[in-house]
Amino acid sequence: MTDTGRALLRVVLRRLAGALVVLWAAVTVTFVGLRAMPGSVEDVVLGVHANDPGLREQVRDALGLDRPVLVQYLDFLAGLARGDLGRSYVQRTDVADLIGSQIGPTVQLAVAALLIAGVTAWLVAVLTVDRPPASLRLLSAVEMLAICVPTFWAGSLLLLLLSYRWGWFPAAGAGSPSALVLPALTLALPIGGILGQFLREEVARRQHDPFVLSARARGISPLRLRTVHLVPHAAVASLTLAGNMLGALIGGAVVVETVFGRPGLGRTALTAVQGKDMPVLLAVVLIVAAAYVLVSAVVDTAAVLIDPRLQEVRR
Amino acid sequence: MTTVLSVRDLALTYAGPTGPVPAVRGVSFDLEPGRCLALVGESGSGKSTIARALLGLAGPAATVTATELTVDGEDGLTLTEAGWRRVRGDRVGLVLQDALQSLDPLRSVSREVAEALTAHRRMPRPERRRRVLELLRAAGIPDPEQRARQHAHELSGGLRQRALIATAIAAGPRVLIADEPTTALDVTVQRQVLDLLGGLTADGMALVLVSHDLAVVAEIADHVLVLRDGEVVEEGPPRRILHDPRHPYTRELVAALPVDAPPAREAEDRPEPPVLAAERVSVTYHRPGGGRLTALDDVSVRVERGRTLGVVGESGSGKSTLLRVLLGLQEPDGGEVTLDGAAWSGVPERARRPRRPRMQIVAQDPLAAFDPRWTVHRLLGEALTGERAALRGPARREVLVDALTDVGLGPDLLDRYPIALSGGQRQRVAIARALVAEPEVLVCDEAVSALDVLVQDQVLALLARLQRERGLALVFVSHDLAVIRQISDEVVVLREGRVVERGPVQTVWEHPAHPYSRRLLADLPTALSGTAG
Amino acid sequence: MTSITSGRAVDPRARPASARGRRWWTPGTVIAAGVLTLVAAAVLAPGLLTGADPQATDPSASLQAPGAAHWFGTDQLGRDLFARVVYGARYSVTIAVLAVLIAVVLGALLGLIAGLGRTWVDDVVARVLDLMSAFPSVLLALVLATLLGPGTVTLAVAVGVASAPGFGRLVRRQTMAVRHADFVRAAVTFGRSQGRIVAEHVLPHVLTSVLLLAAIEVGTALLTVSGLSFVGLGPERPAPEWGALLSEGREVLTLAWWQTVFPGAATVATILAFTVLGRRLQRVVSARGLT
Question: Rounded to the nearest 5°, which phi and psi values hold at B227?
Answer without folding.
Answer: -110, 140
